[in-house]
Design a protein that fits this description.
By secondary structure, this protein is of the alpha/beta class. It contains twelve helices and ten strands.
Length: 261
C-alpha cells in the first residue's frame, strides 16, 4: 500500500496484516470533506481486496480524531445537493467494510467524526478524547448514523442528551456508557489499538469475518433471527481448513497457523 496518491490521509503497514490509516487535515481538525471521505473509501476498497490485510486501525492526531463533516462544504449544499451528495456512497463503503476496523481516538471526536468512529468495530479512546454530536448547534441533526448508532451504543437517555444538547462527553463517560471499550493514556492509544489489531490479525480470517457479521447483524435483528444467523455462520466455519487447524493445534499443544481457507 502506498500513501503517495493521498492528500488527506496517510496509510502505512503497521505489523503483519495491519494497516494504520491516519486522517490528515490538521488545519481543519480532520474535518471530513469529500476528498477525505473519497480517499478513505478508496483505502478501504484496497484493504478489502488485499488478502494479506486482516485488520485496519483508523486514527487522527493528538488534537482531533475528526471534528465532524466539513462545515464549509456542507454550507454549500441545498436539499438537492444533499440528495445527490457523493459522500453518501463513501459512508456506505465505510459501513460495509468486512474486516475488523478499530478506531484509536484522541481529542475531538465530533459529529461526523463520532459517526465515523462508531462505524469502527472497536473504539479505543485516549483519556483526553471528547465525543459529541454537536450538529444541533448548527440547526441540523446527525446524518451519518449518529442518532441510530449512538442509540444502540449508549442507550436512549445518553443518546438523547448528546444529540439534543450537543454537549460532548468525556472518554470516561464514553467508557461508562459503552461507546468505547478501553481508555488509554493519549500517547498510547494508537499503540494499544495496533496491538489489538495484531492480535485479531493472527486469528482465522473467516472466523473473524463471520463473527463480526454476526454481531453487526444482531444489532439490527431480534434474538431468534440473530441466533439463527450465528448458527448458520458457525456451521459454515466447520467446512474450513482453519477450523481443523485451530482444533489440531490445540490438541497438539502448538500455535495454530491459519491460512484463511
Ligand atoms: N468543519 C470545517 N472546519 C472545521 C471544523 C469542521 N467541522 N471543525 C473545526 N474546523 C476548523 C476551524 O474552522 C478552524 O479553522 P481556521 O479558523 O483556523 O481556519 C480550525 O479547524 C481549528 O478549529 P478552532 O479554531 O475552532 O479550534 P478550537 O480548539 O477553538 O475549537 C472545536 C475546537 C472542535 C470545539 C470547534 O472547532 C468546533 O466546534 N468545530 C465544529 C464541530 C462541529 O460542529 N461538528 C459537527 C459538524 S456537522 C451526512 C454525513 C455527515 C454529517 C451530516 C450528514 N450525510 C451523509 C447526509 C455530519 C455533520 C457534521 O459533522
Amino acid at each position: 500500500m502506498t500513501t503517495d496518491n493521498f492528500r488527506t490521509l496517510a496509510v502505512e503497514t503497521a505489523g503483519a496484516g495491519v494497516w494504520l490509516v491516519r486522517l490528515n487535515r490538521p488545519q481543519a481538525l480532520n474535518a471530513l470533506n469529500t476528498e477525505l471521505l473519497g480517499e478513505l473509501s478508496a483505502v478501504l476498497d484496497n484493504a478489502e481486496d488485499a488478502g494479506d490485510v486482516r485488520a485496519v486501525v483508523i486514527t487522527g492526531n493528538a488534537r482531533a480524531f475528526a471534528a465532524g463533516a466539513d462545515i464549509n462544504e456542507m454550507a454549500a449544499l441545498d436539499m438537492v445537493g444533499i440528495l445527490n451528495d457523493p459522500r453518501q456512497q463513501h459512508w456506505q463503503r465505510i459501513t460495509r467494510f468486512s474486516k475488523p476496523l478499530i478506531a484509536a481516538v484522541n481529542g475531538f471526536c465530533l459529529g461526523g467524526g463520532c459517526e465515523l468512529a462508531m462505524n469502527a468495530d472497536i473504539l479505543i479512546a485516549g483519556s483526553d478524547a471528547k465525543f459529541g454530536q454537536p450538529e444541533i448547534n448548527l440547526g441540523i441533526m446527525p446524518g451519518a448514523g449518529g442518532t441510530q448508532r449512538l442509540l444502540r451504543a449508549v442507550g436512549k437517555s445518553m443518546a438523547m442528551q448528546m444529540v439534543l444538547s450537543g454537549q460532548p462527553i468525556t472518554a470516561q463517560q464514553a467508557l461508562q456508557c459503552g461507546l468505547v471499550s478501553e481508555i488509554t493514556q493519549p500517547e498510547f492509544t494508537v499503540e494499544r489499538a495496533l496491538a489489538l489489531a495484531a492480535d485479531i490479525a493472527a486469528k482465522a480470517p473467516l472466523a473473524v469475518r463471520l463473527a463480526k457479521e454476526a454481531i453487526l447483524r444482531g444489532m439490527d435483528a431480534d434474538l431468534s433471527t440473530g441466533l439463527r444467523y450465528e448458527r448458520q455462520a458457525f456451521t459454515v466455519l466447520a467446512a474450513t481448513d482453519d477450523r481443523n487447524e485451530g482444533i489440531a493445534a490445540f490438541r497438539e499443544k502448538r500455535k495454530p497457523g491459519f491460512s484463511g481457507r
